[in-house]
Each structure stands twice: as C-alpha cells, then as structure tokens.
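Feature request disguised as a bug: please show the residue count (414) next to Aminotransferase DegT in the output. Example input:
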Amino acid sequence: MHNGAEMKYVQEAYDTEWVTTVGANIDELERQVSKYMGKRSVALASGTAAIHLAIKLAAEKVYQSSTGISTPNGKGYGGSMLGKRVFCSDLTFDATVNPIVYEGGEPIFIDSEYDTWNMDPEALKQAFKLYPDVKIVVLVHLYGTPAKIQEIRKICSEHKALLIEDAAESLGATVDGQPTGSFGDYGIISFNGNKIITGSMGGMLITPDEYSYNKAKKWSTQAREEALWYEHEELGYNYRMSNIVAGLIRGQWDFLETHIKSKRKIYKMYEEGLRDLPVSMNPMGIVGISNYWLSCGLIEANSMEPMVRNGRSAVYEIVDGKSCPTEILEALNIYNCEGRPIWKPMHEQPIYSGNSFVKKDGNGRAGSNAYIKMGGSVAVSSDLFNRGFCLPSDNKMKFEQQKVVIDIIHRCFR
Ligand SMILES: *Cc1c(COP(=O)(O)O)cnc(C)c1O
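Example output, currently without the count:
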C-alpha cells in the first residue's frame, strides 16, 4: 500500500544523483528505525541478508567468549558455524533458517505452541537438555504475533545462548511496550513486497552496539578496508540497501500505525464473519500487541474433512458441515482470491529432513529420521499446517471483497 510520500524521496534521490548504496534516504531511514528500536540499525538489501549478518556476528561473539580470543580492530573473522548446532523456530519461512546453513551451521528445529503458534519455551528447554552446547537461538514472530519472548529470552540467558529475533513479519508488534526485533541480541526486520512496510525489497539488522553496527555495515559493502585501493582483510558481501529502495521505505515509515490499523480491521472482520463456523483465527494479543500482518484460519479438528496432500496434489472427501484447507484454498482460487497454506514446518521440508526436531515432551527426531524417542503427540507445527490456512489480507482489500471471501468459506462448510 502506498501513501504518496514515497515518490518524493525517490525523486530526491534521482535529482541529487544519489542512486547507489549511499545517500540521505538510507541515513534518514537508519536514524528513524534506530530511534524506534532503541538500538543502532543497519539498512540492508533484504531481511535474509540481515539474518545472515546476525548469524555471523553471533558466531563471532560465541567464538570470542569460548576462546577468549578477540578480533582486534574487527580484523579477521573468528567465528565459524561449521558443524555447530543452532536452535530455530520450526514453523516459519525458510529464510529464517537458510542463513544458518550458509555459515555451515546445523539447524535444530523447535516445535510451536498453540498460544502464539511460535516457538514453545517448553520445547526449547527440552532441546537444551538434549543439546546443552548450543549457543545461538533463532526465533520468529510469525504472521505478526509476538512469541513468548520474555520466557524465551530468559531460557537463552540461563544457557548463555545468544538470541536472534526474526521480526520480518512482526514490525510494529510490541511486548510490554517494547517493539519485537529489539529484544534479542540481534534482530531483523524486512521490507519485502508483502510486508507491512515495503520498499519492494530491503531489510534491517538491529544491533546491540556500535561495534556490531559498524561491522555489519562493513561486511555489507564488500568489507573494504580504509586504504588507498580496494584492500580486503575479511570476506565481504553486497548486502547494502539502495538509496532508491530506502526512499520508498522512508515514505512509508510514518504510516506504520495506519497500516497496522487497517490490518487489524481486516482481521476483526474475518473474526466476526467466521464466528459461526468451526474455525478459529490465528492468535493475536495473547502475548503483547500484534501488528495483525496476516489473518489465518484454523479448522477445529473434529470439523476437518479427510484430506491427503503432497507437494503437487491433494485429495479430500466432501463431508456436510466440514471442510479442509485444500477445499477452502481451491474455492478461493476459483474466485481469483489468493489464500495460501500455512508455512510448511521446516522439519517436514525435504531439504531439512535429516535435521533434528524437538517437541515439548522431549520427543522428536534426532537427525536422519532416527527418532529421539518414538511416540508422543503430533507436532504442534504439523497440526497447524494441516488444519490452518492463510486468508487474503492485503491492506487495499475492500469491504465487499472480504465479504465474498467470508461467503466462500461458509459455502465450503455446507
Ligand atoms: C519475509 C521473511 C524473511 C525474509 O525477508 P526478505 O526481506 O524477504 O529477505 C525472513 N523471515 C520471515 C519470517 C519472513 O516472512
């Protein structure tokens, strides 16, 4: 959703010929986000890039505290994730996880809980019992709903583990008045095309100190040393935000609260419209205040039609008074409304089928399908994936359009 201020800043960038990764829009955006988060924040090309640099910074810090060897003047790159385990939310977009693997680390997935759909603090505790050596935890606030951040932060500090907060979907959501993204040792936000504030792309890393800010900025601009020529002592990346993209974001920044209000209105209308069906909405406001980024439905277990899916096809049996995510998504699609499945849990993804997964009862999977302990309940993340669906939630959606969506879902349950 655009507000009109975006083109002014983009035009300024053009007129003054600051179209590269330096310029007033980047400086101003960094200033505003840093003020909002209460921490120095670095403007980057994407949220994924921000997670990658957060992993690198955390790895370096873990290395420094375990060896006592610092990297003076920020020279050299001491941290290595090679073969190291990292705990990570199971129910998320794979951009949360992949940067762990970019650095050679091994993600271990932690199950969700029903209160927030996010990482279960109990499962995290179990994971620390199984893998007490883990020093980095990556936590997502899914669909704009804050995770049980205070509990998780406490567990992390008890185990002297660093916390990376993926607030890509939860920009503007708060817990105890503090913004998500600012609780962890490192936080990230995203300005990708579908996020609550967008510059078509872009992301930011929220850092704990001046050192991390400078380091991330340096790494993101090919790690150039101060020298007469291009001198390199470290591995660099082309991860800096463009001043054009920063102009778009800067133009939207002041409208964060407006966007949250319209997202909330959309959510409330679905909540009201689906009230008479055996469908609950994704939890908002259990912990802190959500940004209502995405509205989702969850079908009650005893109102689910039998459904079998693989990646390419799905079958289900039509039963009176019941439905299933596939039926709903297919019906929406016929009317050109875009719904989506819930994120497929990472432990079910073919690429991560060899990775460990831990549930709150301590059961799960240890590496390549060897189960830590057989039995136990279905994973919460898998259950949410099976029964849940994402509703069209764009800010531009009209009242009438949303009514059609609600009508279609009612018809699925007849
Ligand atoms: C969008 C998203 C990201 C990645 O952000 P990009 O800016 O697209 O790289 C990471 N995590 C989650 C949960 C996201 O939704």
